[in-house]
Protein 1
Amino acid sequence: MSKIDLKTESRRYRERYLEMPTIPLQSGITYGPVRSRRLGWSLGLNISPISYKFCSFNCVYCQYGGTTICTINTSDWREDFPALDDFEKALESALREHKDEEINNITFSGNGEPTLHPQFEELVDIAKKLQRKYFPEAKLGVLSNSSTVTMEKVRRALAKLDFRIMKLDTGGPETFRKINRPCPGVDYEAILNGLKSLENVTLQTMFIDGAISNIGEQEVSEWLERVGEIKPVKAQIYSLHRPTATTSLGEVSAEKLEEIAAQTEEATGVTVEVIIASSPYRRRYNEPYRK
Ligand code: SF4
């Protein structure tokens, strides 16, 4: 299928199946600093296309709604990703603008999976240079969905960062396909092996309930087994706090998250942080930043 056909088809799919409005895509290369649930004051770096959602996953809970182009192969869309020069100018300008403010972290995240940028490693080098110049105390890191963790160039880039927060929502391929809805070519076992061989990794896991769930006894037990195999520095677990791509999902209570955390720590010895955020979309809990 040609590029235009794919885009048209994806748009039709989105119009037909997207069930509720989600939050708009980031419109620029930098955003914030925002008070993040996990990262304190974080300047966000969006290196994905801005006019449509490009990702290797189409997670049922995605705050940006359905993925327009779901692929791990960026070759047909290279021109839609920000160029190195534009990235450098935008980041330097943002760092100058906020130089008197508190920035704890500078984080590659944004509209989709940041490591899909064809020049992710070069962008990391630029960001590192500017972070050292303007915010030497801040940490530079990434929030990634882990789909590219086996790619050599991505692994080199990940190794240059101060932190790597990598997604693992499920303990097996079946729930992975239901929740993260990966594009063809993304393999659960390959991700698992990639994560196991990565140094100093932090895992991030979204627990959800409702029509699709990963909090059943078996799902949790499989997930914590994988955590034990990967042996991350820590795992961060949380639940919904924003509108999602699928309306039939439910938030997991803080009590249940605490229970999963305790069970995992006991079984694996890995520290588990329960992240509970206050948000305009959350009604049941309002603790700003916890544990
Ligand atoms: S990996 Fe992140 S950006 Fe991509 S669909 Fe999932 S939640 Fe959305």
Note: The first strand starts at residue 30 and ends at 36.
Protein 2
Amino acid sequence: MLNRFSMLRSMDFFSLLCCRKLSDGKEPGARKSSTWRVFSLKELHSATNNFNYDNKLGEGGFGSVYWGQLWDGSQIAVKRLKVWSNKAEMQFAVEVEVLGRVRHKNLLSLRGYCAEGQERLIVYDYMPNLSLQSHLHGHHSAEYLLDWDRRMSIAIGSAEGIAYLHHHATPHVIHRDIKASNVLLDSDFQARVADFGFAKLIPEGVTHVTTRVKGTLGYLAPEYAMFGKASESCDVYSFGILLLELASGRKPIEKLSPTVKRSITEWALPLVQGKRFKEIADPNLNGNFVEAELERMVLVALVCSHGTPDKRPTMHEVVDLLKGKAYEKLASLENDDIFKPDLIRNNREFAAIDGSSNGICVQGDAKGDMKQEAVVNLTG
Ligand SMILES: Nc1ncnc2c1ncn2[C@@H]1O[C@H](COP(=O)(O)OP(=O)(O)OP(=O)(O)O)[C@@H](O)[C@H]1O
Ligand SMILES: [Mg+2]
């Protein structure tokens, strides 16, 4: 693996990207590499009207995202680093490196980047329907644009994007920040998984890496939050939370009182155990959903967010399950212990993570030798 810090110091992003190994376009949904390029700061200033406030699409941990238009009329989204630091620089490099390696219809495409002085900017295709988060809980939630068919296709599309990262990209990629604000929606409401700043490349034959915990509260797999053990199945866990969110319109963590919080799995599991699937459906759907598909989505969501990593399906299996192709597997999942009453506690996220207040930051030795830093936020 590349030593990222030395790589970062040299800051030769051009040669870094030239070394990338692109997909050969044979995997399902994979695309031939399209062209990316280096942008000048001047060009991005002009495209975004000098990063005008009116052009701002949103803000995240890395910085602000602006809408822009290039001289050829094409629309772009520009993510501009807020404050320069080694950590931010690392995030920038990882995002550019990973996005430069992957091409898939359900992954956000990289248009290019700009690294001038302390300015770090990443240029993407503009996604006119913004993020899943904005439709479920944000600005667009009152417009009810997510009917059931769209939700199903977003679920399958984002699963295919992640499956590509896990099973087809070379080396394999763990995303580590799967959540509703990182699933963007194109003009046809097709899902594009975005934000690779926390991604890890996994060399062939390696099952997991031990790492600092990064991600968003409510989406973190317990073994990752507690022991920093990152593997593909951590993304599967986060995807399970995302699926429950998509089906129900609820947030991953709900505040029941100033001190008590409930995770979406704790809320959904008793309903599934009582076979009360319809009560899980987002009230904004007004009862307009396909019952069998809702049931499937919820069951898959809950096995994905199983407390025991080995019990979670792979993303390939998730795609087949969501498409209704794995009938027998689904039937066997329904008989899993987690769907029997009284076992709710086994599938909970650990209280240390769940029970915290804002912007949890766990530091120290989680297990003797392991330093843990939970860089998580509660905005998701
Ligand atoms: N390519 C894009 N097209 C359209 N809107 C985008 C694009 N990229 C980002 N956005 C918008 O900008 C917002 C901020 O994105 P950003 O990834 O910086 O933060 P976030 O996902 O909310 O949080 P985090 O920093 O934890 O990922 C997104 O929620 C989305 O609405
Ligand atoms: Mg994001």
Note: Residues 148-168 form the longest helix (21 residues).
